[in-house]
Amino acid sequence: MSLSWKTLVYHGARLILGAIFVYAGWIKAADVAAFAGNIANYQILPYSWNFLVAATLPYIEVLAGVLLIVNQRVRPAALVIGGLNLVFILALISVMARGLDIDCGCFRPDAETKTTAAEALVRDLGIMVLVVLTWWLRGAGRRTN
Asked: Could you tell me the pTM of the whole model?
């Protein structure tokens, strides 16, 4: 049995994407207050929503990441991650357009070294490529009878 390149790319993209979001969600859930502060730095949401988003978003990321890792409900999980990632991209573009100098807070909410909005945007565009690959290649190598 030989695996096609599409199958290999699909599983690789799915597993990397799942691991990224399990890790990112886990880190954010470990320090909700720091993550809420990072969300507030974006100056997009009303102040009262920052903690609500910080308290729920990490668990959505972890759940979607786990679903990708275990290869279950892949398309819905990829859709959720793609939607979240699109929101992150738009928020980063907004930060750059307004000239705010903030840390994105995506992977290390309390880090001493900052990840600039431009660096985070490039990373998120790469993540979006993984989302698209996972979505399009779902089912690659399966026989259709």
From this structure: 0.86
